[in-house]
Specification:
heterodimer; A: alpha/beta; two-stranded antiparallel sheet; B: 2 domains; 14 helices; 49% helix
């Protein structure tokens, strides 16, 4: 028998508001409250625990490109519904709604610009667009971006963030693995550098194609990277997954990444790497 | 094993069998003939109206011919080659030199087992990274000695295991897809059972993609698709329908190039006939391929995959 009895059913906290909405963000990892200005200035990395927040193409483009140099390519390519696919809602409706909600045309944006004055072509995925799923639009945009590199000789980069192929395009989305990888083979033949930048999370089709095929594979710290998702593996094997499993550091230890780079150093590091790759030595 | 929709057929067949035994003493050949006509009609009726989910079940039929069955039934002088030269020999994939017709080729295929023991040995046809690297090693060997490559796809998926991830499942598949797109010998891909996603495509990039009639090939299995999109395992029939994973659907959207007929009632009912139909088709394809110039071959292959996709601007 309790000595004290609550007079109200629940203690309600939802009226308490000492943090103005939209000014602060909470770190998903350590719970630290970060002022939005500081958060942006810190490139969306938690100043306390270095947690790299998931960000999109808009943010990456502004981080990597020299100011005012970015020109978007093929912006308005968008999905059709080749299979007339319907799950809980029709695919074309899902696309329509996602476009409205995210202000994006698909899960990838591509463009040209300069990185420390080096002309580059960069593709960047947006995880918030149907889980960064890869369908026909993504395949075509990457193919055209690579074609641009083949024409101009500019180095190529893809920043990945993807849950895998887009189920609503069935086998066609699977074929985007072949479409993008075969185009990369062409790029390799011409000895044009391709750097894969892998961010949280990159699994399934993206990792089983372009994300793992860089001349250099670079990841942000602690990104989830793998073929099968951890839940699937746990279910299939019935085993507990080791600590840090499928995280960037784990992949580096097993030999599948060249380096892990903090987002705040990314641009400078890429600049140095590109200078190495593009340097004409008298070999 | 008898699938649910095959049951009426099998019952009738058993009845005929019984009647045949009696036919020694009784003259009932007229009845037997009548019943045979009935069976054929019934079978035609069933097999012309298969749902995608029923086709998925046929593709997984445990008595279906597997890679090694086809190899033994349609090739000679098969020399099986093992190992990836790096870590181990993945038993979920087999490969080696073989003669088919007048051609000396490299055959590589995913291999399932027929009972629990052999399935554990073959890991249910689910390859590890070592398997993809073994396949690639054999393809490079074929390229070096100018042999066409034939691959057989029959997998429920790449193995989702801890060690598989440690050894780079994603990298292994990605590497194969890239290397196959520029391998300097003809590649003929045949889907002989299940073609599940990246695990299948990891040995599935080629100049010609053939598919047996009762197979499925897609980005995900209907069950997994159901569990992700419908958040329940109960929508596999709908998922199978929605994914357009059957041969006629894939032919329509250009993912496969040719459908290979199966014996009446499915390949599991007559391995020899299934193999002989496939053998004829492969020889035709090899002959066509041998006429294509090397650089043209690679351009065509890359273009083939470049053209896959639907979008608007």
């Amino acid at each position: 028998m309790a000595w004290f009895k609550r007079s109200k059913e629940n203690i309600s906290t939802d009226t308490r508001k000492d943090v103005p909405d939209g000014m602060w963000v909470k770190c998903d990892e350590c719970g630290e409250m970060i002022h939005k200005k500081q958060w942006e200035a810190n490139m969306y990395v938690c100043p306390k625990c270095n947690y790299h927040f998931r960000i999109g193409s808009e943010e990456y483009f502004s981080i990597l490109f020299d100011e005012g140099t970015f020109k978007e390519m093929d912006k308005k390519i968008r999905s059709v519904d080749p299979l007339k696919f319907t799950d809980s809602k029709p695919y074309d409706k899902r696309i329509e709604e996602t476009m409205k909600k995210t202000n994006l045309y698909d899960a990838i944006r591509t463009g040209t610009g300069e990185l420390h004055k080096i002309p580059v072509v960069i593709c960047c995925m947006d995880f918030k667009f149907i889980g960064g799923s890869m369908g026909s639009v993504l395949g075509e945009k990457i193919a055209r971006a690579i074609d641009r590199c083949l024409k101009t000789g500019s180095p190529f980069m893809i920043i990945s963030a993807s849950g895998g192929a887009r189920m609503m395009e069935g086998g066609i989305s699977l074929m985007q693995l072949a479409k993008t990888s075969s185009r990369l083979a062409k790029l390799a033949e011409e000895k044009i550098p391709y750097i894969s930048v892998i961010t949280d999370p990159t699994t399934g089709g993206a990792s089983a194609s372009y994300a793992m095929l860089g001349d250099l594979n670079i990841a942000e710290p602690n990104a989830l990277i793998g073929f099968a998702g951890p839940r699937v593996i746990k279910q299939a094997t019935g085993k507990d997954l080791p600590k840090g499993f499928q995280r960037s550091e784990f992949l580096l230890e097993h030999g599948f990444l060249d380096l892990i780079v903090d987002r705040r150093d990314m641009k400078d590091r890429l600049g140095i790497i590109l200078k190495h790759l593009l340097h004409k030595t008298n070999a | 094993m008898v699938l649910e929709f095959e049951k009426p057929l099998v019952e009738l067949e058993q009845k005929i069998e019984e009647m045949r035994k009696m036919a020694d003493t009784l003259d009932i050949s007229a009845e037997i003939n009548k019943l045979e006509v009935k069976i054929n009609e019934l079978r035609k009726n069933i097999f012309e109206n298969l749902t995608p989910w029923q086709i998925v079940q046929l593709a997984r039929h445990p008595e279906r011919p597997y890679t090694l069955d086809y190899i033994y039934l349609m090739t000679e002088n098969f020399v099986e080659l093992h190992g990836d030269r790096q870590y181990r020999d993945d038993k979920a994939v087999v490969g080696g030199f073989a003669s088919i017709g007048d051609h000396s080729v490299m055959i590589i295929g995913q291999q399932k087992g027929r009972d629990t023991k052999s399935n554990l040995y073959r890991n249910f046809g689910m390859m590890n990274p070592d398997g993809y690297r073994k396949a690639l090693r054999l393809m490079k060997l074929a390229e070096k000695f100018n042999k066409p490559v034939i691959t057989f796809l029959d997998t429920p998926g790449a193995y989702p295991g801890i060690e598989a991830e440690e050894r780079g499942q994603a990298e292994a598949i990605a590497r194969n897809i890239l290397e196959m797109s520029r391998l300097k010998v003809p590649i003929i891909v045949v889907i002989i059972g299940e073609g599940a996603s990246g695990g299948a495509l990891g040995i599935g990039v080629g100049d010609r993609v053939l598919m047996l009639k009762y197979c499925w090939y897609s980005v995900i299995s209907p069950e997994s698709c159901s569990s992700i999109l419908w958040r329940s395992w109960d929508f596999k029939e709908q998922a199978a329908e929605a994914l357009k994973l059957t041969a006629p659907d894939l032919l329509k959207i250009g993912i496969i190039d040719r459908i290979i007929e199966e014996p009446f009632g499915g390949a599991h009912r007559n391995h020899e006939e299934a193999a002989s139909i496939l053998k004829k088709a492969i020889i035709e394809e090899l002959e066509l391929m041998s006429k294509v110039k090397k650089d043209k071959l690679l351009d065509n292959r890359i273009k083939k995959f470049q053209d896959m996709g639907f979008w608007k601007e």
